[in-house]
Amino acid sequence: MKKSALFGALAATTMIVGAATAGTLDDVKARGELICGSNTGLTGFGMPDANGTWVGFDVALCRAVAAAVLGDPTKVKFVPTTGETRFTALASGEVDLLVRNSTWTYSRDNDLKLDFVAVNYYDGQGFMVKKDLGVSSAKELDGATVCIQTGTTTELNLADFFKFNNISYTPVTVQDDSEAQRQYLAGACDTYTTDASGLAAARATMADPENHIILPEIISKEPLGPVVRHGDNQWGDIVRWTFNALLIAEEKGITKANIEEVASTTTDPEIRRMLGLEGDYGKMMGLDNGAFKAAIMAGGNYGEIFEANIGSATPIGLARGLNALWTQGGLQYAAPFR
């Protein structure tokens, strides 16, 4: 009986491991489409445009992965997910990859059995108020009503911040950013809290952005990035190295416009490896050797993607800050393509 139980357990474990290693890559290739979990609609990061085409900073990473795996950045199906549904959608296999302003935390890494494979945006939680509220610091929000998304780290950070500062608040819970913005503008809450990038994105869509202030306090660390299911190392590596390729491209001065010229003239060994000009670096992952070149061509390098969607010249107006390359005082640093 004990042997039977042992062999049964081993067989079950083998089946689980086999299912994990069977691979998202094989599924995506067989389907001919990447299914990417996205935001329900956050300006600059992920939402459909007027023509119904998904655009944004996070969307661009999904498209880069599709280009690397399938050779075509348009072969992506975007599935909107809320703060409460996103991780279930990934764990259940409804989506292949989650890229939608999700914070890397200990419990999500371990308890939820998910892998955060990169940080594509270093962020922190902030607060937005109407100018006529007369508040200049989050510490002045004692007794405030606060619009807050459920199922998020912001909900927990909010409780910690108010408890630490010995002030009180009343939560007004919402399902997503769009509802939070509607409730805030309707006066259902005194302040709206989420990642500072999300606040900037929301303000950019308001009719009177000049009348809304993002308070100076940043009350948390919010490393946001792409998430895959735990145990599928090949797929995690593909997403991680697609992102790294975008960073290295910016570092090396490779853009969407000049990549063909660079490919035909470069003698830089790292660039040649990354663009598939020498070695079998794509094939190591089950991809074509030109996979990472295709990823860069999809939307440009990391800096191009940042500036086009959320940068200082856009209505959102985010500075690079922590998201500058390491050579420019930021935290974005790719491992060597070697």
- How many distinct domains? 2
CATH topology group of the largest domain: D-Maltodextrin-Binding Protein, domain 2
> On the 0-100 scale, what is the average pLDDT?
92
Bin the strand percentage: 15-25%
Number of helices: 13
Taking the alpha carbons of the first and last residues, their distance comes to: 51 Å
CA-based gyration radius: 22 Å
Subunit arrangement of the protein? single chain
Bulk shape: globular
Topology diagram in text:
Elements: H1 2-22, H2 24-31, E1 34-38, E2 47-48, E3 54-55, H3 57-70, E4 76-80, H4 86-91, E5 97-98, H5 106-110, E6 114-116, E7 121-123, E8 125-130, E9 144-149, H6 153-164, E10 169-174, H7 177-185, E11 191-195, H8 196-204, E12 212-214, E13 222-224, E14 227-229, H9 233-252, H10 259-265, H11 269-274, H12 291-299, H13 302-309
Parallel strand pairs: 1-4, 1-5, 9-10, 9-11
Antiparallel strand pairs: 2-3, 6-14, 7-13, 8-11, 8-12
Helix pairs in contact: 3-9, 3-12, 9-12
Which characteristics define this entry?
14 strands, five-stranded mixed beta sheet, 338 residues, 40% helix, D-Maltodextrin-Binding Protein, domain 2, alpha/beta, 13 helices, disordered N terminus
Describe the structure.
- With 338 residues, the protein is an alpha/beta fold.
- The chain folds into two domains: 2-122 and 224-328, D-Maltodextrin-Binding Protein, domain 2, CATH 3.40.190.10; 125-220, Periplasmic binding protein-like II (D-Maltodextrin-Binding Protein, domain 2, 3-Layer(aba) Sandwich), CATH 3.40.190.10.
- The protein is 40% helix and 16% strand.
- β2 and β3 (54-55) form a beta hairpin.
- α3 (57-70) packs across α9, α3 (57-70) packs antiparallel against α12 (291-299) and α9 (233-252) packs across α12 (291-299).
- It is globular, with a radius of gyration of 22 Å.
- Mean pLDDT is 92; it is low at 1-21.
